[in-house]
Amino acid sequence: MLTEDNKLLIREMFNEIWTKRQLTAIPTYYAPAQVESTTAFVSTYFAGFADWHLEIVEMMAEGDQVMCRWRNSSTHHGEFLGIPATGKRVTMEGMSIQRIANGKIIDDAGYFDLLDLRQQLSRESTA
Fold this sequence. Notes:
- With about 130 residues, the protein is α+β, with helices and mostly antiparallel strands.
- The chain contains 4 helices and 4 strands.
- It has a 4-stranded antiparallel beta sheet with strand order 1-2-3-4.
- The model has no long low-confidence stretch (mean pLDDT about 95).
């Protein structure tokens, strides 16, 4: 695939899975070996956060890899990493690097500041 095709695949994946919350779309974008772990990972976040809004800030592609810098905001409505629902609005910024072969994601690594997220969840409300 061309780098532009790879970027389009990643944009569509973020929209369908993360923005529209379509777990059933995971096999459309991920290679079979990645489907189970990706479903478990995404499910963990969806259990803890409602109204997920993901914005792609920057995207670059070279060869079979796509790097995406993203920002998301959501409401903490369920348990996440042992933290009971707080009802707080949180934001996360991070990046992901996906490797693509034959039109499917074969490797997906994401990086974001989990400490910052935990701090947002533990702060006293100012309201």
